[in-house]
Design a protein that fits this description.
The chain has a single domain, classed as Non-ribosomal Peptide Synthetase Peptidyl Carrier Protein, Chain A, CATH 1.10.1200. Helices cover about 55% and strands about 0% of the residues. The protein contains four helices and no strands. α1 runs antiparallel to α2 and α1 packs across α4.
Length: about 80
């Protein structure tokens, strides 16, 4: 059974919500991981590891992930990796 975009989106939001230092925010695709959700560089590394585990990815390339700033960009990245 293939995973739908909605299921992917929900899984990503669950992981982001679980790890976000700022918990009093309603998640949406335009939120910036660093400025809106208070992810530090260490938190972002933890998020990358959690995404690798959740979607069974091999280790992510740091150069690929450096441009991800928002939840929406993270969803696009994961969706592209799964395609």
């Amino acid at each position: 059974m293939s995973t739908t975009e909605t299921e992917i989106s929900d899984k990503i939001e669950d992981v982001v919500h679980e790890l976000a230092p700022e918990q009093n925010v309603v998640l949406n695709d335009s939120l910036n991981l660093a400025s809106d959700l208070a992810f530090s560089s260490m938190n972002l590394m933890e998020l990358a590891f959690a995404i690798e585990e959740e979607f069974e990815f091999p280790p992510l390339d740091i150069n690929e992930t450096m441009s991800i700033a928002t939840i929406g960009q993270l969803k696009e990245f994961v969706t592209a990796k799964l395609a």
